[in-house]
Amino acid sequence: MLGQPSLTEINDLNAERSKLSKSYTQKLSYLSILRCETMSGLSRNAQCVLRILELSESMLTSEILKTARQPEYVDLCADCAGGDAFIAAANQLASQGLIAKKFGKGGYRWHLVGAK
Predict the structure, then answer these.
(1) How far apart (Å, rounded) are the C-alpha atoms in residues 47 and 15?
(2) Is the pLDDT at 16 greater than 60, yes or no?
(3) Domain range annotation of the chain
(4) Integer Cα distance of 52 and 64 in angstroms
(5) What is the tens place of the pLDDT at every residue in 88-104?
(6) How far apart are CA 76 and CA 97, in angstroms?
(7) Residue 65, Cβ neighbours under 10 Å: how many?
(8) Which architecture does CATH list for 43-116?
(9) pTM for this structure?
(10) Quick check: 35 pLDDT over 90?
């Protein structure tokens, strides 16, 4: 059983926490809330898109599809590794306000809403 942390330990933890940038901390909080509130009610393809977008501030469609084929995503992203399934899931998430897209060089760039 662990006892109460000492004042020094608390100060050390607070110092470490303050080293994180505000943006990064906000993104982690947003992603935690997003995952808890939405993951259970989403299709596997939509969960795949969200999980991959957690990796980066934004990604091109081609980057997302390439990532979905990686071994660590095979179970969740089996259908989403194809373009049509990805587009359907991404557009559904966009209509729910969870992700957004912007057209530019290389195609559509997708990002989590509120985490940018």
Answers:
(1) 34
(2) yes
(3) 43-116
(4) 7
(5) 889 889 988 999 999 98
(6) 22
(7) 19
(8) Orthogonal Bundle (1.10)
(9) 0.62
(10) no
If DSSP states are collapsed to H, E and C, what string results for the chain?
Answer: CCCCCCHHHHHHHHHHHHHCCHHHHHHHHHHHHHHHHHHHHCCHHHHHHHHHHCCCCCEEHHHHHHHHCCHHHHHHHCCCCCHHHHHHHHHHHHHCCCEEEEEECCEEEEEECCCC
pLDDT digits (tens, 9 = 90+) for 37-67: 455 577 888 888 998 998 888 999 999 999 8
Q: What is the separation, in whole angstroms, between the first and last Cα of the chain?
A: 40
Give CA–CA dist 75/89, Å, rounded: 16
Nearest C-alpha neighbor of 90 from the set 64, 69, 66, 116: 64
